[in-house]
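During the reporting period the student researcher (J.K.) took over the structure-prediction task from the postdoctoral fellow and processed the backlog of single-chain submissions. One of the processed entries is reproduced below for the supervisory committee.
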Amino acid sequence: MGNPSELLRDSVFFMMHQCIILLFLYPPLPKAGHHYRNNQNPETMKRALNLMIVATFSAALCLSACHHENGEEGTNPVYPETPVIVQNAVQDIDGNQYNAVRMGDQLWMAENLKTTHFADGTEIPLSTGSSSTTPYRYIPNDNPSNISDYGYLYNWAATTRNSSSNSNSAHVQGICPDGWHVPSDAEWKQLTNYVGGNIQYVCNEINGNIAKAMASTTGWSYSSNSCAVGNDPNSNNASGFSAMPAGGYYGSPSYFSYRAYFWTADKFNDCNAYSRRLDYNYADVERCNHDKSDGLSVRCVQD
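J.K. obtained the following structure tokens:
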């Protein structure tokens, strides 16, 4: 099943198209003594058109969207020959231990979060419903056997505990263990710049082709596209980030084995928050905004 907001986006584009058509076909002001045929009253049409435009652009404000995010060109950080993996770097309150990977000045979890509680012991409810304000967690593809490898999916309320950050310095612990926090949008940009800044992680030396270096070697659907994550996945994960294709949860499981989604701590607007996406059929990492009620994967970064 596809993301409902993506289906809504298609509907909004259709409505916008209809608005443009009406603008071109809108009848001119009548001359004295002229009467429109078929009850084409310009004032009635104007009111209808205004209502359609307002409804269209109101819906557009809460649409999920993605765009391609290239690694920063012109930067040449010094990379180790192999990723620096820190074994059992952090433990959550449930006792789950996570490996971490050093990415320049950052230390990131190299596994998806799978906690069922906040760090203070408050339980995060398991759900099949949706909410943008009540914290929920979801099972990837509704199969409990996936949790050990793919972690849980969480809505944004659970991820951030309804807090928000707009800079690297304003850390939001949210769902993360003590001493760790939910990465901001800027910290995600710092990560993709780090990976994209060195040729050894860039597929075919094409700027932005960094998804394979960040994706896991297992779980991905097949793609025939050159440099796509699903093309020869055995060559993935040069960076050690190990992004797993847990898909998302939009009232039901979506895109399992096709996409990896990750929340940031930054909101886009009242409806949506920023995220990142890796897709089996593409070579780059995309910066997205998702409805806060959606269930996505979470990675934490050390304070």
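The committee noted the following: DSSP finds six helices and 13 strands in the chain.
J.K. will present the remaining backlog at the next meeting.
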